[in-house]
Design the sequence.
DNA sequence: TTTTTACATGCAATAATTAGCATATATTAA
DNA sequence: TTAATATATGCTAATTATTGCATGTAAAAA
């Protein structure tokens, strides 16, 4: 029961719900800097939220050099049911805006890997504009 | 989104989960004194937990004289999905024990109404023994 | 009209959570 | 080695949640 309580607690926070939403809707792994740009919150806030979600066993992660890719932990039936529930009921405007920003950010991946890192928002906007031109 | 967060927060507490479990498993309305005996916790603790669950719109209630009967709020699709999820994953020993005590307590209902109220546990045990003899 | 009974709530102490900043770690690049 | 970069974490103050007790409320019974 403790683990289930921990999962509910992990989900009872706006930032953490927004993060889970991005994993559910994008259906792929994401790194910390991509989440920063999609959510527009500081790096430490993303990191802390991810740690709580990981401790609740809702996420797993893989390191790749200095990058860390997180993803939904679907190895547990309980989680799969939870994610299905969430997919149906996370439809707030905030979530849709996050998804839009994430999709833009993902355009910058190369070979399906994040290559951008943490950069000022103005630089990010430029990069994305250039990318869309091509 | 705020309401969903409030629901997750309401569910991230052992007492409140145990209460929700009893409503899900028993499939009926229950009054405060019945929950006290099933959970073996003080009246004020049951009342406070119920208030939080009601504010999160997970429960509704009806007054009947001085008795108050609470029940699952199934008027929202979101809740129905949540309850279905919970039904599948609330199977801890604690929950089963609560269910057993509740079933005993419910034997004392008359015309499907609670008639016992708040009494010392020893008196409750006696009443239940007598009831089972009949 | 007083008492009893079922339930709710206000308050105070304590514990847990959050938010922001600075800094630490670990890997890669120079 | 040193510097740079992606990510994690320690610390603090502020806020929020929990617990237990005492008391309040409202309906029914006496």
Sequence:
């Amino acid at each position: 029961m403790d683990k289930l309580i921990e999962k509910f607690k992990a989900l009872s926070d706006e930032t953490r719900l927004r993060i889970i939403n991005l994993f559910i809707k994008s259906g792929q792994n994401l790194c910390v800097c991509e989440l920063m740009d999609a959510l527009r919150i500081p790096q430490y806030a993303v990191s802390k939220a991810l740690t709580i979600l990981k401790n609740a066993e809702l996420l797993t992660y893989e390191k790749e050099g200095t990058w860390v890719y997180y993803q939904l932990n679907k190895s547990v039936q309980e989680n799969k049911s939870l994610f299905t529930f969430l997919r149906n009921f996370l439809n707030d405007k905030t979530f849709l805006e996050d998804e839009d920003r994430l999709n833009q950010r993902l355009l910058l991946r190369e070979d399906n890997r994040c290559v951008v890192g943490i950069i000022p928002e103005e630089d990010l906007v430029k990069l994305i504009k250039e990318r869309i031109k091509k």
